[in-house]
Amino acid sequence: MEQNSSRRTLKLAGALNIERASSLKAELAAALSASSEVFADLSAIEDLDLACLQVFYAAHKQALARGKIFHFTGSVPGRVVRRLSASGFLRGSPDTAEDFEASLADF
Amino acid sequence: MIDKFKSAFKEEAFELLSNLEDIFLELESHPLDLELINAAFRAIHTVKGSSGMFGYDTISAFTHEVETALDHCRDGTLSVTTELIGLTLKARDHIRRLLDFEEPVPGEIIAEGEALLARLLAYIAKAGPEAMASAPAATAATPNGKEASAKKAGNAPAPVPGESETYRVRFRPKSGIFRDGTKVLNLLEEISGLGQAENYPDTSMIPELDSLDPESCYCTWDSVLTTTGGENEIHDVFIFVADQAEIGIERIDIASRINPGAGTKRLGEILVERGAVSGEALREALSSQKRLGEVLVEKHIVSKPQIESALMEQEHLKKVHERGEGVAATIRVASDKLDALVDLVGELVTLQARLQQTALGLKDAAISSITEQFERLISQLRDNTMSIRMLPIGSTFNKFRRVVRDLSSELGKEAELVAEGADTELDKTVIERLGDPLVHIIRNSLDHGIELPEAREKAGKSRMGTIKLAAKHSGASVLIQVSDDGRGLDRDAIRNKAIERGLLQPGQELQDKELYNLIFEPNFSTAKVITTVSGRGVGMDVVKREIDLLGGSVQLDTARGKGMTVTLKIPLTLAIIDGLLVRIDREFFVIPLSSVDGCIEMTKTELSTRGERRIIEYRGELVPYVSLRKHFDSSGEEPGIEQIVIATAHDARVGFVVDQVVGDYQTVIKPLGRMFRDVEGISGATILGDGTVALVLDVNRLASMVQREAGRKLAAGA
Amino acid sequence: MPKKILIVDDSAAIRQSISFILQQEGYETLEATDGLEALKVLESGPTLDLIITDVNMPNLDGIGFIKKARELTPFKFTPILVLTTESQGSKMNEGKEAGATGWIVKPFNADKLLGIVKKVAE
């Protein structure tokens, strides 16, 4: 177990789709209960669907409610940005994780 | 490329058909065996599906009906009988035969198939339930047969195909939508692909991680989409998820939403339209001084995403609107608003006339100068307003094309309509009132002018007759010509008919033009056979009457065997004309200035000495005249000196005797009430500066009456 | 990585032509002749991006196959398209209820097929 104040980065890879949603939820939940700052590195993901995106939103809401931090890190692949822009989650085409998070609707 | 699969398909089909034969034969002895029925259905179904895929459309279509029959056997609504087996076996044989043909299949083979199907369908109709009615297609599109729970656009006017329209799309997936493999983001991407789209997701329902079911959907969308594709394309995006989502598609009427001050719809309006907030709650919120969005969120009336989504719509509409302004700088205006504007301008013109008169009396230099400027401005305002009412006449041409098409086929003739000068502009009221006369003229040309195809060939013409509709400007008038290349008018036939109808005395000779004009007389018809079209002689007299009312004239030219041309000369506008104001006793009349030639004075004695002849000499020409006092039964004594206004109508002069010529007068014409509609010689009314009503003379009509009377007198005297 | 699609139909001609059209577009395809055989393919554990299945088939029909496939964890969310004909409106409902993502109405051309495949599988 890591310290509560510690910072933890989850390096995610592959296609984050509905089949992965349950395990992603478990991973994030574990990380959020163990650490006060959790970062999700999206630079190596191939895809992101609505189910997994919802998991990130839920993680963010939980972190806020519990006084913790949940952020994205790493540059987000263009394919994911395009998909989220087309469905209205993203305004503009952010290329850094900070921009990505700032542009994510209601995040 | 697909060809190499065709042989595979054929082999498969041969095998299926050979099995099918066995199945049918066995079915005959075991008509209740559901397994056999299913097997037969499956075989036929496969043949149908694959034949369609490989372009054997004839087989596919034919098989479809056989499949339907078997489907009825499966669900028990049609029982298997020897007769049915006989038919299906024949059908099987026919399919086998069709496999030997490539498309297009020879007509006689198709006919054989159709005969066979007819027997099959007849059998089903007789033995089955309402089998025929419930047959194919319709059940297709959406699951459960329900029209994707979409709400149709409210009371916005119908969209124009091909034009871009803006829609509000509400997409509320059910939580279980992931479970049938639907990729929700794909649907939103598709929406974006249809045009200029703004998708706004609502993520507020996503719970905290611990309570999240990762396999449920929590998001909903509000989208605003501007597309040329139409509502069906949007429905198609959601075609597979109609049972897994609530979908609302609503057309936003852009035109009604642009309010001049704010540019686009207000936030409050959008929220109320979306049902996010009640009108009452909105008014309450608006009464506080804070920003509307903040107030509504603070009071928990609407959620933040709802506000943002509405703001997004506002933004989108603004964008669309701005883009729209660059492209098409036209707006639609309800025509009654335009009419109201014309009325107001008319009143201004009237008032200005009074001002001018008063100013003249005052002889004040300052007032005169202002009056002149005022007059100039009003004249510009009048011209501008009139030009707004101008429409290209071509907008009505399509209607005539339809008339020609329908009527020529009804009459067994071949004819086409050629239009010229479709962009010639005319006042919209004039265009509306021209519709019927033009239809009558065109019908007349088709019925009496254009010959039957064989007759045309004999006459050395092409089988196809041509009716030309041409419009062009000519001064303050528009000339509209309808010409045909038919047989032309028959002078002798018209003459005989005119005598028969009492329109002409037996010995009386008329110029060609005058003679031809007789076809515009009421109850004149030379058609030997009464047709449903124009043979009753209604038509051409109606044309004349209508055109007279429009202040226009009709002229007719014809050459035997070559065709006929009817020329309508129509004033550009009806709403405001320059007129000559005249007085009889205490009544005022307006004579359209465009038809006035001049005025002459005449003493009472001069008039009376001329007695019954009613002919006056004007510029070396004998001109018949009419006393308007007598015509309109005005009371009062004739003054010592009367005036005669000489006007031109139908290329001939005619005089109108009046008490006094008052002067030029800009006339705003009001349509006549029912009371005056039947008064001959009046085409409208106008209100003078002091509020008195003046009637506008229908010069053409009056002239015809006068000329006819004069003609009769001449004949009687001769 | 190319998308992998399983095609289930008892007509070899249909199977092969769908396969051909999809391969031209760079998809990888697997084929099965009926529901039972298709289940065997699923049990061998491939990663599938889409399943296209006919409805009327011997042994195990399309509807039965979809129900069984949805019970297998790896294929719980895999897009499935059923092949139907116009006259079988009810099959679309049955298919949807069994867990299908959508349907393709026969006869279809290559553009229509690819459009629907793209819609549900990309």
> Between the first and last Cα atoms of chain C, what is the distance in angstroms?
12 Å
Rounded to the nearest angstrom, the distance between the terminal CA atoms of chain B is 93 Å
What's the CATH C level of chain C?
Answer: Alpha Beta
- Tally the beta strands of chain C: 5
- What CATH calls the topology of chain C is Rossmann fold
Instruction: Quote the beta fraction of chain C.
Output: 15-25%
Number of helices of chain C: 5
Strand order of the largest sheet of chain C: 2-1-3-4-5
Decide which structural class fits the backbone of chain C. alpha/beta
Content of β-strand of chain B = 15-25%
Number of domain modules of chain B: 5
- The total number of structural domains of chain C is 1
Number of strands of chain B: 21
Extract low-pLDDT stretches of chain B. 130-159, 256-263, 528-538
Q: Could you give the order of the helices and strands of chain C? A: EHEHEHEHEH
Shape of chain B: flat
Question: What general form of chain C does the structure show?
Answer: globular
Radius of gyration of chain C: 13 Å
Largest sheet of chain B: 5 strands, mixed
Quick gist of this model?
The complex is a heterotrimer of chains A (about 110), B (about 725) and C (about 120). With about 110 residues, chain A is α/β, with parallel strands linked by helices. Chain A has helices at about 20-35, 50-65, 80-85, 95-105; strands at about 5-15, 35-50, 70-75.
